From TrEMBL:
Keyword presence, DNA-binding: yes
Pfam families according to UniProt: HTH_3
Name of the protein: Helix-turn-helix transcriptional regulator
GO MF assignments: DNA binding
Species this protein is from: Candidatus Egerieimonas intestinavium
Gene3D superfamilies xref list: lambda repressor-like DNA-binding domains
Keywords for this protein: DNA-binding
Xref: PROSITE patterns: HTH_CROC1
InterPro entries according to UniProt: Cro/C1-type_HTH, Lambda_DNA-bd_dom_sf
Length: 71
């Protein structure tokens, strides 16, 4: 199982860059970049904070996939 995300898509919908989203979420631009690339799994608190910022359920941003990349 792998944790995937749609942070980049939701960030684009808000028309903010990584630095701006990081500031809104209380983390660095680098953290947002790592999350978007799938190189970092956010804490539950950060995932919920991002869901609040995007105004969507956390499951709409983060989801598990099997080894072949299917939901």
């Amino acid at each position: 199982m792998s944790l995937e995300n749609r942070v980049k898509e939701h960030r684009a919908r808000l028309n903010v860059n990584q630095a701006e989203l990081g500031k809104m979420a209380g983390v660095s631009r680098q953290t947002i970049s790592l999350i978007e690339r799938g190189d970092y799994s956010p804490s539950v608190a950060l995932a919920l904070r991002l869901a609040q910022i995007f105004q969507v359920p956390v499951e709409e941003i983060f989801f598990l996939t099997d080894e072949e990349g299917d939901k």
